[in-house]
Amino acid sequence: MEKKDNNNMNEDPVIITLDDKQFRASELNDDQKVLATELHGIADEMRQLEARFNKLNRDKNYRISDFQNSLTATEENEVVEAEEEK
What we know:
By secondary structure, the protein is mainly α. The chain has two helices and two strands; from the N terminus they run αββα. Strands 1-2 form a two-stranded antiparallel sheet. A hairpin with a 2-residue loop joins strand 1 and strand 2. The relative contact order is 0.06.
């Protein structure tokens, strides 16, 4: 009996999960299937945007850190030069 249930699940896969409830293709009408497909596309794009945002944010933070380090290095060089002039 379990094999039949597993085969049935494979034949009728979960199309969308909304509010922790899974919906199978057989439970959706044609309009809902179209919306579910569109939502999958949107979710994929959002994951790509999130990954791109995370990369850009990380790169930005590196540049800020590099800039701050360059300010510290410049200040230290100025102090050394001022001491050498004395």
